[in-house]
Amino acid sequence: MAHHKDRFKLPEQYADIEEPDFLVVDLLRLPDALDIVALRRTVERHAFEEIAAAAKGAAHVVAAAARQAAFARAEQGDAVDAWDAAWARASAPLLKQWREEAIAGKLKVDYSEAAAATSPAGIAQRQRDMQIKAALAAAQSAADEQRGGSPT
Question: Which of 11, 64, 82, 97 is most enclosed, with most CB atoms within 10 A?
Answer without folding.
Answer: 82
